[in-house]
């Protein structure tokens, strides 16, 4: 059993806690989102069927298959650290990969829990405080369901990925209230929503499939919350201030890409993660490129919605063009699509019919 001290991670931060004595409901879109959040709360204990038997190896073969294909191509490189892998090792990679994926989502949801609590404290508008309070409950529930699925159905967890940990630390250390929105609501949650969508499409395991549907319902509202709030604030910023946000967003994006190299998984497999990094940079196969690009399918259009892509001389447009993801800029933003993802309301309507 782990020592309690090994599981505690503290971050020192200097920020202002903001009260507002203005209780007027002046932001209609946030009012609407808050009302929706109140009716879309769900109980993971009663609305998910935890009696379902789960075959970890089957789940691994489904969820880990795409990642296995991505990493198998690394065998083509000279001095590849996985050159010796055969069918047995790749089956193990598939199982470990899905455990790693779900573990990092669990850790990321705790990051979202703390970031949203920070937003409640620091955002200056009452409508945003109201909605953020509902998201705190959402994020607690997400941590709960991923932890329970990993413990009860898959049997093991991974510690937090260093890239993800660094991102969460930087977001929570920053005293600017909008950085918690940008880093978590737009970047981390946006990427998670894209990844959940891919996982939901490929898995046939009924408990995980429903779990992901419900989490996606919440996450889409969370990203919409970030877009609605930051659109108003960013219209008032100078080019210099916007450039700071552009650089922050791009830095987070590149570190999120690195997170999906799964260093913790390779360490458990007895493979040097740094060697995997070097080989990925050398080979960068089409499957790897496509996977990493799809992760940006929610981030890029929402950055455009915030005015970040073309602000300050289009610096972020140039960066997104360089890494081949600018094509996603005109996809529907999550603020427009969250209603279509409301599986909670749909299931309840079906149950009462």
CATH architecture term: Orthogonal Bundle
Detail the poorly predicted runs.
none
Q: Structural class, judged by helices and strands?
A: mainly alpha
Q: Secondary-structure element sequence?
A: HHHHHHHHHHHHHHHH
Give the biggest sheet.
none
For this entry, give a set of tags.
Ribonucleotide Reductase, subunit A; mainly alpha; globular; 68% helix; single chain
How does this structure look, described?
The chain is an all-alpha fold and 353 residues long. It has a single domain (25-352), classed as Ribonucleotide Reductase, subunit A. 68% of the residues lie in helices and 0% in strands. Helix 4 runs antiparallel to helix 7 and helix 5 (126-154) runs antiparallel to helix 8 (206-234). The chain starts with 27 loop residues before the first helix and ends with a helix. The mean pLDDT is 88.
List the helices and strands and how they pair.
Blueprint: H1 28-39, H2 44-47, H3 56-72, H4 87-122, H5 126-154, H6 162-173, H7 177-202, H8 206-234, H9 239-259, H10 263-268, H11 273-283, H12 286-294, H13 299-305, H14 315-322, H15 334-337, H16 343-352
Helix pairs in contact: 1-5, 1-8, 3-4, 3-12, 4-5, 4-6, 4-7, 5-8, 6-7, 6-9, 7-8, 7-9, 9-14
Quick overview:
This protein has 353 residues and is mostly helical.
């Amino acid at each position: 059993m782990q020592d309690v001290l090994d599981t505690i991670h503290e971050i020192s931060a200097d920020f202002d806690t903001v009260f507002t004595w203005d209780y007027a409901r002046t932001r209609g879109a946030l009012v609407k989102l808050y009302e929706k959040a109140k009716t879309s709360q769900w109980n993971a204990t009663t609305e998910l069927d935890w009696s379902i038997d789960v075959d970890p190896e089957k789940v691994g073969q489904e969820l880990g298959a795409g990642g296995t294909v991505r990493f198998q191509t690394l065998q083509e490189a000279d001095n590849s650290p996985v050159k010796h892998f055969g069918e047995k090792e790749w089956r193990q990679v598939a199982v470990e990969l899905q455990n790693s994926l779900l573990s990092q989502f669990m850790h990321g949801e705790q990051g979202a829990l703390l970031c949203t609590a920070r937003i409640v404290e620091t955002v200056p508008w009452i409508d945003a405080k109201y909605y953020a309070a509902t998201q705190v409950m959402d994020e607690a529930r997400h941590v709960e369901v991923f932890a329970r699925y990993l413990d009860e159905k898959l049997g093991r967890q991974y510690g937090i990925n260093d890239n993800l940990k660094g991102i969460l630390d930087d977001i929570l250390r920053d005293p600017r209230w909008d950085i918690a929105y940008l880093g978590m609501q737009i970047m981390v949650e946006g990427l998670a929503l894209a990844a959940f969508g891919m996982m939901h499409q490929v898995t046939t395991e009924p408990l995980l499939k429903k779990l992901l549907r419900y989490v996606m319902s919440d996450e889409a509202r969370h990203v919409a919350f970030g877009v609605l709030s930051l659109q108003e604030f960013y219209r008032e910023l100078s080019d210099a201030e916007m450039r700071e946000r552009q650089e922050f967003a791009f830095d987070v994006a590149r570190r999120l890409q690195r997170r999906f190299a799964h260093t913790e998984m390779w360490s458990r497999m007895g493979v040097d993660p740094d060697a995997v990094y070097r080989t990925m940079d050398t080979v960068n196969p089409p499957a790897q490129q496509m996977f990493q690009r799809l992760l940006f399918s929610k981030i890029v259009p929402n950055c455009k919605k915030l005015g970040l892509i073309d602000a300050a001389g289009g610096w972020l447009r140039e960066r997104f063009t360089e890494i081949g993801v600018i094509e996603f800029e005109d996809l529907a933003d999550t603020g427009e699509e969250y209603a279509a993802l409301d599986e909670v309301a749909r299931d309840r309507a079906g149950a009462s019919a």
